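Hey, quick one: can you model this chain's 3D structure?
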Amino acid sequence: MDRINKLKEFLAANPGDSFLKHALALEYVKAGDAGMARSVFEELLEREPGYVGSYYHLAKLLESMGKNEEAIQCYEKGMSAAKTAGDQHAYNELRAAFDNLKI
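Sure thing. Here's the predicted structure for all 103 residues.
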């Protein structure tokens, strides 16, 4: 069974598991399904806006889709969430990616 189906199976049993949802989105990225990856990341962040790591990956995905303005907004939301969480490492990563995009 492929990883996407296995993760969906796990999520069916644990629908509130943000780690599984994040992993599923990353698998969609690997599979080249940007639309599904975006949908899963957005659903995750809608439900749990404090899941800081997903902002970086969603913003990078948006960049790869040529949606730079949306990526910038995503980086900004992620930086805010990282500050709220006191996660300086995540903030720094988001800030560096944001700054690189703004150049």
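One thing worth noting: The two ends are 43 Å apart (CA to CA).
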